[in-house]
Amino acid sequence: MSRDNQSNYDYDFSSTDFLIYMWNKRVPLLIITFLAGVASILISFSITPKFRSTVVMFPTTSASIAKNLLADNYGGRSSMYEIGEEEQSEQLMQILNSEGIRNRIIEKYNLMDHYEIEGNSKFPMTQLYAEFSSNINFELTQYLSVVIDVLDTDPQMAADIANDIAALVDTVYNRMLKQRAIDAFYLVDKEYNSMITNMDILQDSINKIRFLGINDYETQSERYYEGLSRAINEGNYNAQKIFEDKLKVLSKHGGSYVVIRDHLLHETERLSRMKQRYQEAELEASQNLQHIFIVDSAFKAEKKAYPKKSIIVIISTLAAFLLTLITLIVVENIRKKVTA
Fold it and tell me: Which site in 3, 35, 120, 162 is 20 to 30 Å from 320, CA atoms measured?
């Protein structure tokens, strides 16, 4: 088909006509597609490569460490040795996205300079946070594990940042939990020492009564009355006087002895339970256990992860081809309407 016939051909862009149209326009299509391919290759080589490092971890359960280790009848659903559930994984994601972790990493690795952001620019912190978010990502997987993914031009720095973020999780967790545990320990400690002081007072009071000869009110009362009855029956006035004097002391101080003794027994049981709480609170306030299980630590990558030159070239070339084809079709339709 001659060039004049090609230009005068009336395309209706059915499937057959569409292929004919692309064949007739093959020259501009091929030229522009070729140029786009060459340009994308050059651009891909000009992009600074980045390396990826990844940490995979699971959260631990929120079970009490102290109760797991000290309580004899701990009835909690979960153990401190188990992997956490969805709630703990979501909490872990919140901590990873916290301002504290982000600022610690920015400060430690001087990311403002590393990302080549000018401090006197219009919005330096906005640029810094945007660059941080584009290079450092956190993902919650379907298996409830959490992935820390770091991209950086320096492969060693990418690995170090990923591992440091994982380590900071425990720092943040322990800081939050420790303050609450310390406050709780102070309350338990105050109550525990108050109970010990009260126990000392009760013990001192009952010792004074025991000094008067009252050691077991119920037994002594029974024996003294038996002795008094026997002395009366035998006409033993000296023994009768002795038992009467003992019964007077018992009658005067026996009630106090029983009250203090029963109170002391009750407080002893309370003190025993409080001692266990004291030990649990003390352990919670002093512990620095890990709150995550590391499945895979980050390591220095040997191959770049970005950019994918082949993908850039293919997508750019295909986009140029389609854009050129659409442009030619639009021009063709406009030409037909103008000449109609």
Answer: 3
Question: Quick one: pLDDT at residue 309?
Answer: 61
Statement: residue 288 has pLDDT above 60: yes
- The residues, any chain, with a CB within 8 Å of residue 15's CB and separated by 6 or more, are none
> Cα 38 from chain centroid?
48
Decide if pLDDT at 6 tops 50: no
DSSP 84-107: P-HHHHHHHHHHHTSHHHHHHHHH
DSSP code at position 60: B
The residues facing 137 across adjacent strands are 149
> Taking the complete model, does pTM exceed 0.70, yes or no?
no
- Where do the structural domains in the chain lie, given as residue ranges? 1-47+307-334, 181-286
Q: Residue 308 has what pLDDT? A: 66
**CA-CA distances (angstroms) from residue 136 to 29, 111, 151?**
40, 12, 6
Kindly report which listed range (47-61, 120-134, 257-271) carries the lowest average pLDDT score.
47-61
Q: Measured between alpha carbons, how far is residue 207 from residues 2, 31, 200, 222, 253 in Å? A: 127, 109, 10, 21, 12
Packing angle between helix 26-46 and helix 15-24, nearest 10 degrees?
70
Q: What's the rounded Cα separation, in Å, for the pair 26 and 19?
A: 10
